[in-house]
Amino acid sequence: MSAAPSGAPPPEAPLEAPAERPPPTIRVRHLSHRFGSFEVLRDVTFDVGPGEIFGFIGPNGAGKTTTIRIMATLLEPMAGRVEIDGVDVTIDPAAVRRSIGYMPDHAGVYDRITVREYLEFFADAFRVPSLDVVDAVLELTDLGKIQDRIVATMSKGMKQRLQLGRILLHDPKVLILDEPASDLDPRARIEIRDLLLELRSLGKTIFLSSHILTELSDVCTSIGILERGRLVVAGPIGEIAARLEAVRAAQARGHAPPHPAAPSPHAAGAGDGRHAPPPHGLEAPPPAVAPAAAPPGGHGPYPPAGHGPPHPSHAALAAGAVPPGGHAAPPPQLPRRKVKVRVLGEPEAAAYLLGGGPGILDVAVVAGAVHVAYVGNDVKIAEIVQHLVRNGIGVIGVEPERNELERIFLEVTQGEVQ
Domain named ABC transporter: which ranges (predicted)? Predict the structure, then answer.
């Protein structure tokens, strides 16, 4: 075999295969359930990846607690499947219970024992070495300084911390929390939020339900919004916001896509069989933004009589809001937003530099930070930072306004009584 000619370029190294995404820790497929004639869940499908904090959002009565009870092996679904860490909740519920920590809404506690006695009791129930484990949980939840206090004398926020400590004793991989900050005062909510962020840093996957959007916006990596038993939208918050902007732009140009056609009521998985096979198999991943799919029984994307019309954003989100024909379109109408910028040196100099610039609506200095109201998206934030740096002003912090989740929720839901 002849040698390569002198000066010839070396052979290219083979391309590395792209890294595969890890399988979801929580996998829900075509989940449906009813109580009597009332259909409380309708073909709900979503994934939660490892290490995520997934916010499950919806008004009271939307079906959040029913979904959670199925995930926690306390209720068997009438159709569809749920897997936790690869295990079907109806096939091997004992294995699922070993891998989850479940904290229900308004969970009770034993009031007449101390904090340490409470945790030691449940450590024995979980058959874990109580001394070392209880000490570790007391430290993690910051309850060590009150470990000898009687539980009845504790505040609601401290009792919630104790509940979180209880479900951590057996070191579960997944935490399922139903309204964990309900009825808490602002300080207790902040403390619970910080504890959840710390648990995520320890590798926990957290499924968190709530109807209080402000408590989710600071902690969640992804969300799912449930309305009248249907999953309206699911995915990373930033990705959903970007899709909604595309929808708004398409609608402003008169190119909003129509509702998708309703699937056949005879499709695989229709009916009330508890383990009816899903139309595309359990392995099929859900869309990043889920359309309003047909529930068992074939109602299609339109809710049955008495549940109101579908929201126009639902089909637009699912279809991606691509103008027909791919023709060039005018620039979209960009949203008005705010960002807080912290700089090195005098913030007044930065405010003066930004004032009156293209797309800048208002600039003010508040508590040492520059508050900028602007028209645009995340690209505009990058332009603001670049403009400051080019003019010799160092930027040490950028904090977009925390209203993205509220805006998404109001835009994709109808706000009707559940």
Answer: 26-253
Distances (CA, A) of 285 to 23, 26, 58, 266, 282: 10, 12, 23, 22, 8
The angle that helices 156-168 and 115-126 make with each other, rounded to 10 degrees, is 30
**Is residue 408 a part of any domain in this protein?**
no
Sheet (strand 230-236) strand order = 100-103, 174-178, 205-210, 53-57, 222-227, 230-236
Banded pLDDT at 106 (limits 50, 70, 90): confident
As for how many domains the chain has, the answer is: 2
- By the 8 A CB rule, do 378 and 327 touch? no
Q: 329-346 pLDDT, tens per residue? A: 334 445 677 889 999 989
Domain CATH number, residue 283: 3.40.50.300
First to last CA, the chain: 76
Please report whether residue 211 resides in a domain: yes
Q: What is the CATH number of the domain that holds 368?
A: 3.30.70.100
Please tell me whether residues 51 and 70 are part of one structural domain. yes
The predicted structure's pLDDT at residue 212: 72
- Shared domain check, 345 and 314: no
Shared domain check, 347 and 325 = no
